[in-house]
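Re: adenosine-5'-triphosphate structure - here you go.
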Amino acid sequence: MKTITLIPGDGIGPEVAESVKSIIDASGVQFNWDVVNAGAEVYEKTGELVPDSVYKSIEKNKIALKGPITTPVGSGFRSINVMLRKKYDLYSNIRPVRTLPGLNTPFSDIDLVIFRENTEGLYIGIEAERENGVMEAIKKITPEGSERIIRRAFEYAKSMNRKSVAVVHKANILKLADGLFLETGRKVAKEFPEIEMKEVIVDNMCMQLVMNPTQYDVIVTMNLYGDILSDLCAGLVGGLGLVPGANIGNDLAIFEAVHGSAPDIAGQGKANPIALLRSGCMMLDYLGHEAESKTIRDAIKSVLSDGSVLTADMGGSSTTSEITDAIINEMKKAN
Ligand code: ATP
């Protein structure tokens, strides 16, 4: 039986992780769950932010499903989420953004996949005070780092019969760093003549996405732009409670939602588990359990189309456990 590392995380993390675990178990997939935790709550209890058991479990199982982790200020880490992605070289952050049925959103047919470079850019964490209160942050873009994420985006586009890949940059200003990313995009695109490469400057991309998002298909970009565009796109399809994500390296993957720990609603039973659940579906697909993932996705669609059990972020008043039960009931009906 496959063992999955489950990291519930902080804030709403434990609530949505519990929901997702029970829905995946109800899908018929047989997993052992190795539950280990990291983050602010663990730090308060033990003084350790990331206990050794977390690293050991991830390294042994090579697959983790992870809730959001809060990194306390002054704990010695900038962000545990970013640290884990870098430590395990999970260079592809893949975030599919799709319209779901039954929700009141400005567009009805969005189907985008964002590939965000996950290990370099402005997230390398090199900042310094150069002189009297002047701060500098380093943006690191390498040929290898750019090529592997861009190649993964094009390979995905080809395998999924997608039409275009938009390479998002600001090379008109950052001529060297973003210029390298864009040039690498042009080079990789030559190997995929069946896929159209679009070159889009990041500020224009923001405007285009809110005015006419369906003109795009696959998007590939650097770390910070990818983070910002992911939240923007989440807003187009109903918010952060819905959008999943995967961090994939060469032989290890961590699946997590785009959202953070949402301290404003933590512990109130209000959190929407669908973002982490759809991250779990990406994990099932990654592991070859496409049938079970489809059962869960179909059940999510049925519950949303019906519209009587929705959490507050989707315009309803149901709790996390009510929507969990509703999804499991739909799965039972389908079997
Ligand atoms: P981070 O900086 O850690 O990525 P963030 O600034 O993106 O976090 P979140 O914690 O994701 O912030 O929360 C942003 C808003 O979205 C909050 O109002 C929060 O309540 C809401 N939100 C996020 N996730 C969910 C969810 N699963 N269900 C309902 N609301 C959510």
